[in-house]
User: Fold these one by one.
Assistant:
Number 1:
Amino acid sequence: MLRLALRTLRMRKGGFLATFVAAFLGAVIVSACGGLMETGIRADAPPQRLAAAPIVVAGQQEIRLPKHDPAEGKLKTEAVALPERVRLDPALADRIRATPGVSIVVSDVTVPVVLAGSQALGHAWDSAALTPYTLTAGHAPGDGEVVVPAGQAKPGDTIQLAAHGITARYRVAGVAAARTTTEPTVFFTAAEAERLAGNQVDDFGVFTTGDPSTVAARLNLGDGVVALTGDDRGRAEFPQADASGTDLVVLSAVSGGLSVLVALFVVASTLTLATQQRRRELALLRAIGTTPRQLRRMVLGEALVIGVLAIGAAAALGPLLGRWLFGRLTDAGVVPEAVLFRQGWLPMTVAAGATLLAVVVAALVAARRVSRIRPTEALAEATVERRWLTPLRFVVAVLCFGGGTALSIVTIAVMTGPVAASTAGPAVMLWAIGVAAISPGVTKLMAILLHGPVRLFSGVIGWLALANTRTAATRVSGAVTPIVLAVGIATANIYLQTTQQAVSQQTFTEDLRADAVVAAPAGVSPELLQRVQQTPGVAAASEYVTSTAFVTTPYDESQDEDGQPALGLTAEGAAQTTSAPVAAGSVGALIGDTVALPETVAAELHRSVDDPVTLRLGDGHEVTVRVVAVVAQPVGFEKLLFPAALLAAHTTAGLSPQVLVRAEPGVDQARLTASLAEATAGWPVSVGDRASLLAAHASGDEVGAWVNYLMIGMIIGYTVIAVVNTLVMATARRRREFGLQRLGGFTRTQVLRMASVEGGLIAVIGVLLGTVVAAGAIVPFCLVTTGSVLPIGPVGVYVAVVAIAAVLALFASLVPAWVATRTRPVTAVALGE
């Protein structure tokens, strides 16, 4: 049967090519997503500035939080990544030096610096050996001196630097360069760097006299400290690599899983249609004695040959697509540039397995109906479509509709705020799969419902198109299903994203009472804050710090691995720069180790004013704070409010990056920003108005939206190709039918008009069903987030989706019909299919 399968493929190039394209694109996309997942799992970021040190000792960038209430006696915990750099005690250097095999220990600190208006990083000159840097001019820095990168200044010059909120003038002692890093770096003396870093160490570079791995195993570092060797040293230099790797794993897993489902349906739809178009041929084989098993083996053999060829072609292009996608994510800032793209043999193996599974399942489903008919009914079965609702389709439809309904109920009854998208998203695929399972029947029903409008606008031609659609509902549904997938996935995901962005921006806008912002890349010092507060026209000013906190006591059942968003504010300006209503206590008491809890969090923790709460801040530091206020915040957008000094000290920067400013009554934004610019002249800061604050928040949301659009766009592009693929194949195989119609009196123009009406019907049915699929996810989500059944977003998005579906359906129906009708009618009938 394999030999026969190979021969039939040679004679069925159209169906072969269509199935090959569907399987090939599915394998390419799954392989690319697998490469992104492998990259995220590895999170390889080879060291650059720390490349010369064989061992790097750094803080462990994760903590373990209880998964269950400790009061219940359960000890299960989960690892949680920390968003801020974990710093070390300088005294740890003595313990490291005492380890046998250690020759030199170099303390490394990092300080944000503003040099000549651009951002750089400051380090101690001692740590230049960790790269290593070499002097190209001048000498090592002394008191009041610095070493700068090439092109910034020359030895002997005097420059102004801002570091850790302090602006000072330094003499340039020398110029240094390194081959392994392009990061602008300024070197201070060890004492100056230690003072600017607040007497904390980022990491230690350890040089050894023996094997680094052996020496690293001997180090007695204590809890929360790790010794890194090889490429793992890059994790100390780029702690954000692990967090971005986790995000990349989640992103690729969701996109890859969605791709597998889409590929399964597209391949099944294409292969089923190709098999149905050969029912006469397969029926004849049954009539001459071919057994059902032999027929299934032949169809399966054909599918396996196509799948293997598709996998072979995809093996080369999958990594290329993965690398291109990774480049786009890097350009968008989702993944640090230091992370390397890695794709080994495993992603392609998974893609090959998923593709073969889709092909085999599709082949078995396609061959099942034809192989089960009796030989005496073979020819009759080949000419008339009968049963379309099989037990398998019925079970799949019931399960998917049940699952989609359950997710919708959970979205409305349980979910709150943006997290509602976590259940709304999967509901799209469940609704789509359910509709696809019963698409022949739904297609026939939709054709009946559209009978009146179609006849009204297209007359007899429309009647014939409707008759063709109803009698060949199974064939037509093969073209409708990809349109349903494309319209449903595109509409749902785009409007879920735009609604979520709009709600987030609206919430931020309503909470923001500030009229201007003073941004300080080198950090906000007390002197700068005081100058801003004393500027004419300023009613209040507050530092503004964002980070994350993890509640440890009491146990927070609602807290996930992302922790609780945290916001640091200055007590005297907090109430006037943010508008969260205070339900109890006062945000003016945010001084020292205190916190203001949102009402929902306070209720979850059973805490009120003056109660203690123990939590870990973004760098893992544990602190017990006193609740001084309970504030009302929108559900889903809650933030813990801390004193800015407390929260900023446990961020990577170490200081607040900006100051929010509220104008006095009667002072407009233009006058306020002008006053602030004049008051901060000479300081390394920038002044912006309220619009710049809103734009900055919107741009942060746009990064996540861009990533979502990129991955969804890739999948939709695949389904669009599948639409064209399926329609071209379905229309091109109707040459005999078109020939008979022309012999019966139809002109070529009338046949083409009929084909265009059929294409329009396919587009309308696909768009309507796709809209229903999208609504199954959008409506519950919008009810939770906005209280309306309609999403927030431009109507043009939906119009564009509908227009693209219509153009594709018409183009893919008319062009093959035009080609098929070029042959003389008698010749077309004689040649048959």
Note: The chain has 26 helices and 23 strands.
Number 2:
Amino acid sequence: MIKLDDIRRHAANRPEQIAVVDGASRLTWGQFADHVDRMAAGLSAQLPPTRPARAVHLADNRWELAVAMAACATLGVSCTGLDVEAGAEELTGLLARIQPTVVFVSTEHRQVLDGCVWPTGPEALHVLLDGAEAGATARPAGVGSRSVSFGALLATEPLPNLPIPLPYESLTVVPGEGGSPRVAVRRSAVEGRHLVDLVDEFGFDGSDVHLTAAPLAQPTARGLARTFLSLGGTLVLGPHRDPAALAALIVEERVTTAVIDPVALVRLLSHPGSEALAGSAQLRCVIALGRHLNRWVVNTAWEQLGPVLHLAYATPETGLNAIMGPDELHVAPIRSGRMMLGSSLAILDQDGAPLPAGATGRVAISGYQVMDGYLEGEAEFTTLDLGQGPQRFFVTGERGQLDEQGRLVVTSRGTEVPTVSRNGAVDTEIFRLEADLLNLPCLRDTAVMRVDVPGLGDSLVVPFIAVAVGRELTGYKTLTAACNRRIPSLPAHVIAVDHIPYSPTGTINTDELLDSVLPIIKLNLQLEHTMQQEMSA
């Protein structure tokens, strides 16, 4: 997040201009500077001696969180976002590995934090982001033994001189898909280079009003928020769970750029309030992570928002690497993109050698945004010379190819299959089947899951959301035909649903989804079996 020196510079030039918008709360640059100054002073006075100094936050987007993150950046304290929908067991494991010295938590997420016990927990400073009057010093009930309210820290007198920042460190949680989350580590500051590349790529400037309708725990959302604040623009924290409010906010705040969570984007485009945005809004660039976005989203975004949608390819380990702009989206397959400034791509064979365009292999990424490694170790890197001298590449778990235009096309990902891989060829086809379905314009959303449960055996479960009410039959026929064509060896159970659950980090919550659809599928099979018996009697 942006540091106090940059905030003070903007406050000196435009003290009354709005820096951060959060619902009815609006912080001018002057107020933002004062709050961050006091918060940094309050944190500095209470930081425990444990080193390295690390902070985590368990909170939805709010202006208090923006202030806290800026204060941490000013002090050189890494501030890592945690998944607000994670359970106590997952959070406990992450806290034990990160060992934070400061924990920022909001009221609605205090209960799950109370269920987490980790070795350094009693030594950490717990900061409650809301629910306390300014100047309060009493320990908020239910949190750690060293606790203070946000208001108490905000009442701290600014320090004449801030302490020397601690050595740089940045931690990012890598969501666990079929396994426990990991933590990516970077020990070199890249914010300045990233700012320059984003400005060159998109033409961002200080006049932009930027909407963040994605959790700040997401690296892409956090990086873009930092970029626009660094430029002196306005940051609007959007209600990513309320599409009506989101549509109204885009118009009312005259939003020009946005990063929108994939789930929030689908909800926005499905809501009647978005139909007039192309004519009434000021939008010129919307960035969304494209892992699960489909052809319906691309087409509808063009109709309702205008030619503004950019699908991004980004990972916590490698940063924002590839992008697909509005024009290319109509001719290129989903899950593809061209490399951005500062990133290089290689496709590797099984021996780690680079492959030519058109060949499929492991995807390897190089660039200044690539992590140094996992906090737990065991990351796969390789050094390659692709004509610009030796470069260090992170070897991902994905497979892909470079097409004739030099775009990356992701063709398979082992972690996409939510069960233990039983057959590599079939699992690769499952990923390709999902890509086929995402390119169908008759679906709003879908998921492909391989299961092996009593009553179904080894089979596919394919829930989908129809493009409109009354179009479920079309979707059912289309998906069933695609499943039979791509993977005839496995029976496919296609079922229309109203909702596909996602985590705040954009991954499908397969457990919740299966819990909701498996009973319906089994009931349908029982009814079908009963009807067949009656017909044969």
Note: Residues 29-167 form a domain with the Rossmann fold fold (CATH 3.40.50.980).
Number 3:
Amino acid sequence: MPQCRRTRSSLHLFGLLAGLCLLAPAIADQAPVRVQQGNLVMENIPDIPPEVRERLRQYQNVRSASLSDFGPDGGIYITTRFGETSQIHHVARPMGARRQVTFYDERTGGASVRPDGSGQFMFSRDVGGDEFYQGFLFDPKTGTSIRFTESETRNQGFTWSPDGDQVAWASATWEQPDYTIWVADPSKPDTRRRLVQAEGATAPREWSPDGRQLLLGRYISINESRLFLLDLESGEMTRIQPDRQVAYGAARFSADGSELFVVSDADAEFRRILAIDLSSGEERVVVEHPWDVQAMDISPDGKLMAYTINAGGVSELHLLDLVSGQRRSGPQLPAGRIGSVRFSPDGQRLGFSHSYAGSPGDAWTFEPASGELLRWTESEVGGLDTSRFRAPELIQYTSFDGLEIPAFVHRPDGDGPHPVIVSIHGGPESQARPGFSSTYMYWVHEMGAAVVVPNVRGSAGYGNEYVNLDNVLLRENSVFDIGALLDWIDQQPDLDEDRVVVYGGSYGGYMVLASLMHYSDRLAGGVNIVGISNFVTFLENTAGYRRDLRRVEYGDERDPEVREHLESISPSNNAERITAPLFIIQGANDPRVPASEAEQILEAVRGAGGNPWYLLALDEGHGFARQSNREFRREAETLFLTEVLGLDP
């Protein structure tokens, strides 16, 4: 049993304090021995056989690289992992050697280069996955970095002024729902100046071209956000389009600052690009597709727009000439996923990250003038032959009420019948999209399991109506979508309906527990990673800065009717219905889903006669970021899956 310490994490994270110090004595007589190995605490997990570790080795050593920013020397900065955690690296030329720049035990966010030619860049870093991000400025001339944010705060929205003299950002404390907007010269932290105390989850989005205004965005829900212009001299905040309840994505000023280009779902089912005249408030449609527009950037001269759309999960990159209004050819890429797009400071190159079935993710650039597409990195794939890694099949199945649910299916070779792993995404306003997954490929090629990845109702990417079909009192309808998927599996001759496991993290972890609650007689087991086990305790104990955001989706537990409903559908109150084998995985420092959610479902299932496996990482948060922890987790998951699916380890 690890010793309980009154650190910031344990004080803020009721789960660790309650789970490790308060709950354990009450169940000590019936609980398995809790074993600690380094920072990993576990129950019921057998010793990992060497052959399991060996079979996983190649798949565990897959890496990816994502483009962060352009360097003043013509090279790029990327984030990738060559040790325990992701760090910042520099690449001088396409396919050149990467040079590591930051060397921390903790993961770092990407580099954002200071636009003054100095070569300095800022980045963020948290501790143990607590998501209390701090801002740092790195100087390549001295090789040193300094922190410019206040400790004991969570910071986000770091944005450079056009001349690079200042950076703006937002901060909040653990229980504070409102964010404070700051500005400072990051090389002189004592110049830090408070601009305004904003309402809700408000953060800087972009500076106006003349540096006199700051665009702020407040996130309320996936269906509602607000934009404000903050006058830096007067401190006055003016809401853009105050009479509209819409959602905004990416936002960019026009070159002269007279217009604002925004990704928005205003008067539309899917997100498109609008131009808002900042003087008159009038808007015009710039780009529209029958799918959501996602990333967007504008060249420094204001003449060219680059944007991506999410076409049923597959990214498409488009270019638009803002002078002529004509679309221009974009690069031809394998069907996959594209991250954010950004123009170089001279506007000659467009940078982005791209992954697909045969590549875990790499940095690319495209030159619109010449049409030249350059790949800058080729990430290691552990020596695997990725040519056999095929893109999944897109299917649709009919749910209990006639709604069509999309899902991606990875099938192994052979006639089957194959065991099935149903992988459920988190969010819930997220979307499973085809790309590279060493986890899925291991299950398919080494375990011979089919992998089915549904986008149940409530998923993003399919329009506003679809994303709202699971809100508040409709929550369990998304669980019934899994029941309908089990019906679909029953009808597939190459799939074994008697060997199906559900697997998911965060909200997907709740879906695992709820699926076991409803369908334990049809499931071989479930793996719940940082999942919600009781919506009321989750809302009461999640970090204060995000509590109101989650109430929009799940309901306000302070309302008696809503509270009664949330209690009735929560797995921890229905543990006697969870009879299939269960593996619970949790990070102790998780600010989103507190560790108490894992401890209480562990206690409840055990009290109902179950005997779950349990893994707690004391140096992780909402998911596992450290490579050694990830390796052990994958090994333990593999052992659990082979056991419940009746496979050879």
Note: The mean pLDDT is 93.
Number 4:
Amino acid sequence: MDIRETSIESAPRRRLTALGVGLAWLAAGAAVGTAAPAEAATTLTVYAGGSNDQGSVSPLVMGTNHRYTFNGYETWDPATGQIRPDIVTQSRQMGLTLLRWPGATHANTLWWSDTLGDDRRCQRDGRITDLGNPDNPADDVLAARDAAYGLDEHMRFVEQIGAQAQIMVPMAIGNPVDAANLVEYLNTPAGDGINPNGGTDWAELRAANGHPAPYKVTRFELGNEHYHAGQRYWMPQNDPNASPPARPAIAAYINGADRRITGEPLGKLTRRDAAGRPVCTGSTAGVASDGTAGQVFDLNYPSAVVDTFTLRVGGVTWRRVDTLATAGPADRVYELSPHVGEVRFGDGVHGAVPASGASVVADYTSTHRGFVDFYRRMKEVDPSIDVCASWGQTTFPPLFKELAPAGSTYDCLTMHPYTDFQGENKTDWDSAQEAHDWHMLSAMEERDNLADLRAAVDANTPTPHPYVAISEYGALWGPEQNNPFPEYSYSMTHALYMANQWMHWQTMGVPWAAGNALASDGWYTLLGPADKGFVYSAEAIAREAVKPMFGARGQQVLTEISGGPVRDPANTVMCDGGAPSSCQDTYPVLRAMATRAPDGKVYLMVVNRSPVPNDAITVDVTVKGFTGTGSATVRQVAPTAFTSHNDVNTPNAVALSTWNRAVGTNTFTATFPPFSITVFILPPA
């Protein structure tokens, strides 16, 4: 597919790399650092006739992440067994089309099957609270988490709002059979007597859990961000003598590997409250025996190879047995559940009770299959699904080609094109305006990273090539101290950044994308924290504004901007503090995208990214190959400042306005305020 970028993104100092993608770059007007107007009239041409179509519109680029922890960050109400009604309403209102589950880093160590039904197991939170020595998984600490917002709860929520699900399959402690069972649970029909993966008939269990019909999930990705040291778990860390240094870890991700873990002090995920009820308040941090009957301890990283497993209680080796039922009261024995990583002791009748204060320490080999085996077993259950690798870096495609067995493949590769201000040395913000400019400059860099990854995939795979999808993105991690713009992550600036990326992802043919995230305990998500009443953010408002455009599907059509102003932030401001060379870049103030729906309506989205008050831009718009009715619906988000944000005190500081206005049958003039997002809906005559 020939995909052309439709507006210039930077001055010539910046690389404008196509990497195999056809681009239509247009001449920009005068560079402006303040409110200076363009030197020539600004025109916007929309080629709606059909000969310049740019590819199908995918509404699934308007997805987001949602996480299982903390009752889906309090969006799930255990008392009613439902998603909160206000969350359902707001999710529909902002037009969410795709929801990722069970989440990200924390979900790398989830057992999905233990999130079903009434008898649920406490989960390990993959956000290692004490990484210790990265080369020694024995000293990792993973906190316990309750899984009340489980798989079925998520799927019911997805159905309620008319969206689709994207599932991240945890690999850090899972195995291919478990992943295949997940596909069977989600996608196979009940009542047909067919059990494609053997063992439990998961379709019948789904029906027993209240959903006889298959959920029909088609998008799966294996693991989350294992390229980060804190998400390697049992995988090797970087080897400075390898090329690239991540080669051992990538090899383990692709083909699996074993890891010897010695001297791991076992913890307890499940503890008991004052009434003796089990609660998920523990962790895998080593704890001594409390001297009670029937204690259960947990490993960090199942699956454990049984024949390699040694357990010491108070320094004395105990013996593994298949069942405690035949053990005597003094027998120093234990049961091992190697795949879920549990060690169970006796009750003093069947098996001895470890003495109070005794340490419990294990040595074992943690064995794991890789992507290739997961992919094969999952596709055997349902060949129609897409199984994505998640090592979204350019080092992965050539190593997969080299290291994977002949004939192996992946359907897609997911990436997380975040703007990480701290990681990219862009946090020396002298003002909110500088922060805004860094957002706008960084948006193009993430587009470049996407193009680079797609080029690496295409260069190392046969046709038809796997596609690149986006399972997380956003602009995060600004300065922690003396931040002149602490509201940046939920302000209009962030909404403009995300609108810019929606256009990028659509223009580049990304089939689905999930931003970060629906809800959390902070302000940086679509809905503000639960204790603040889930405030509807500026980004949520922006999504609501563009919802009709993406929901109408159809075709993206070519747009051209001529004479538009270019913002040139002062280099002396942007480049202090050791900033990267992009501190010298410029960016066009206007960006535009247009689509033609199946019913003939033309949708035009225009973003004015200027942070300068009164920097409105008047544009002469021509829609070629189209005759309208002379009337248009306008949807606009235009707050009083780029720093505007919604919170408990000003919940409507950023709001959506809609109105109708007269236009010519194919030409009209419009003025776009600064820091605004505007959508025109033009019906055909």
Note: The two ends are 30 Å apart (CA to CA).
